[in-house]
Amino acid sequence: MASLWEYANPLKFMRTTDWLLPVVAVAAVVVTTIGLVWGFFFTPDDFRQGATVKIVFIHVPAAMMAINAWVMMLVASLVWLIRRHHVSALAAKAAAPIGLVMTLIGLITGAVWGQPMWGTWWAWDPRLTSFLILFLFYLGYIALWSAIDDPDTGADLTAVLCLVGSVFAVLSRYAALFWNQGLHQGASLSVAPGTRMDWAYKAPLYICMVGFGLIFVTLVLAGTRTEIRARRMKALVARERMA
Amino acid sequence: MGLTVTNLACARGGFPLLERVSFSLNAGQALVLRGPNGCGKTTLLRTVAGLQPALAGQVDCPPDSIAYAAHADGLKTTLSVAENLSFWAAVYGTQGIDAALEQMNLRALAPRAAQNLSAGQKRRLGLARLMVTGRPIWVLDEPTVSLDTASVALFGEVVRAHLSGGGMALMATHIDLGLPEAGILDLTTFRAVLPPPGSGHFDEAFL
Amino acid sequence: MIALLVRDLRLAFRAGGGFGLGLAFFLIIAVLVPLGVGPEPEILARIAPGILWVGALLACLLSLDRIFALDYEDGSLDLLATAPVPMEGVVSVKALAHWLTTGLPLVLISPVLGLLLYLPPQAYGWLVLSLALGTPALSVIGTFGAALTVGLKRGGLLLSLLVLPLYIPTLVFGAEVVARGAQGLDVATPLALLAGITAGAVALLPFASALVIRINLR
């Protein structure tokens, strides 16, 4: 019976990604290049922010993927806890470092952008604070994975941590909002009336977002393949020992 | 009333270790598990005790009938012998620790803190814990470790008394307890056979 | 259950139980901060709510790894898992014992430390109330972290890394209650949110902790 769950079979997953991974990788490179080149060289300077505004083409997609990566880990963790598919747990494991780096990119580009705009590298603004907290959650998740030897136990424990962490991450987000109403602008792509962003920026930004999404998928697929192989290797060594 | 294990398969660290283990124990019977180190005695006992899930098969016994004793005795060193025992009696909702103290020859040690006991005395206290649980099925992992000959004999007596009272015992041990009536199960015959590589088993990549 | 609580409390009070360490740590923080920041009353009064809350949080953290580690090492946790008590109950009792030996003393001693830090008089009630409402959440969340790391060698540092981010909402709302109380502002909103987090954590987290303990014992 053909169903989505078939791809949870490690062998089937490896066979599918054998051809899927290069396709996604090429698409990611092409789309991101188009988006960034368009964004950097073919958009007008902002009348107030000048050329600095163009960092938005990295900042916003990275920040978006930082959150999406966590959501993906949450879903993968749930799939592991409920259906016990190893590939799902390994995909969550592979996504964590990528999410961590995306968070870091978001924070660093934000600092670089904030310096000329707000005159400071860092502000304890709710949005910035939330991202810093998200960064800590990623660190904890990755540290827990690396501390546990048994792969299934590690998968179980990190999955539970991911679930509980998600709840507390959302709580922290609201706590940060409550704690300090900040100077960060609202979501850049809000559909509220009086949207500040022009289509001249929006079009390349959307392309960059798709590009970053594809980069994320590429890296997660590659990472999951590595994890599957590592797991397989461990299994073969153990088999050898038992024989 | 009894313990029935059917086609049980269990794993350690994600690898199948034992499969198709079947046996049954009725009131008054004892079974000794034998096999070389690492063959899965502890894993099987932990699976029967419900500490880890079985890969396949079933463990059938009346609810709340198993008392488990592991390698470690679970003693609190700063509590006295009597306090340690009373705690477990309270957890299992049973009355009185006197019989257990008497039978395991711990009466004189009752007020002493557990940290001042010798290894063998601690072991005796760990086994006395079984008696206060009031459970019919004892699942014992190497119960005679660090016991001297006299204490082994004492323990053999206690197990026999437990069996004659309608109890059951499942043990992993290398030492002859002086229980000729106990059955013996050699675990080497139940060693799990992994599916050969390339058989298309669902999670084969990980086995 | 009650037997378990009595045993844990008895162990905490006996020699080597570590009772009072958290309290001493809390006191040291309240002494070190003025030494580092300077003795100006205005500055100390301004940061007192935050210092007291961060201090309480760290003092709580100090004793977390003892919650399960000792029971795991001597095998009691295996035996408790096979005993006729639900694991959810065991972790709840463990959290309660931790709160009684760590959180409650912190709540009681906090006004004295507030005095050291020139906390404004109108804030004392709110300080005690917010700690009384918030420290149970710290114990319950910490129990979850301790359950996650119970099987690990040198899990202590990892435990802090896992637990501290989870403490953020409690810290924010707890300190906010005291800060607003000190300024004579309305504290109803942060107080309600603090109580909500504690209630939610106490009600739900024991299930996660019990699940995690069972996984770790496998």
TrEMBL record, chain A:
Keyword Transmembrane attached: yes
Xref: Pfam families: Cytochrom_C_asm
Annotated TM spans: 20-42, 62-82, 94-116, 128-148, 160-179, 199-224
Keyword presence, Transport: yes
Membrane topology recorded in Swiss-Prot or TrEMBL: Multi-pass membrane protein
InterPro entries reported in the protein's UniProt record: Cyt_c_assembly, Cyt_c_biogenesis_CcmC, Cyt_c_biogenesis_CcsA/CcmC
Domain Cytochrome c assembly protein as annotated: residue spans: 5-184
Major location (coarse): membrane
Top-rank taxon, per record: Bacteria
Subcellular location(s) per record: Cell inner membrane; Membrane
NCBIfam families: ccmC
Protein family according to the UniProt entry: Belongs to the CcmC/CycZ/HelC family.
Protein name in the entry: Heme exporter protein C
Originating organism: Roseinatronobacter alkalisoli
Automatic annotation (TrEMBL), chain B:
Keywords, alphabetical: ATP-binding, Cytochrome c-type biogenesis, Membrane, Nucleotide-binding, Translocase, Transport
Pfam families: ABC_tran
UniProt entry tagged with the keyword Endoplasmic reticulum: no
Domain of life: Bacteria
SMART domains linked: AAA
Family annotation (InterPro entries): AAA+_ATPase, ABC_transporter-like_ATP-bd, ABC_transporter-like_CS, ABC_transptr_haem_export_CcmA, P-loop_NTPase
Annotated GO MF terms: ATP binding
Domain ABC transporter: 3-206
Protein name (database record): Heme ABC exporter ATP-binding protein CcmA
Source species of the chain: Roseinatronobacter alkalisoli
Name of encoding gene: ccmA
Automatic annotation (TrEMBL), chain C:
Keyword Protein transport listed: no
Keywords: Cell inner membrane, Cell membrane, Cytochrome c-type biogenesis, Membrane, Transmembrane, Transmembrane helix, Transport
Primary location: membrane
Pfam (any one): CcmB
Membrane topology qualifier: Multi-pass membrane protein
Transmembrane intervals: 12-37, 43-64, 96-118, 124-150, 157-179, 191-213
Cellular localisation: Cell inner membrane
Similarity annotation: Belongs to the CcmB/CycW/HelB family.
Record function comment: Required for the export of heme to the periplasm for the biogenesis of c-type cytochromes.
Name by which UniProt lists this protein: Heme exporter protein B
Gene (name only): ccmB
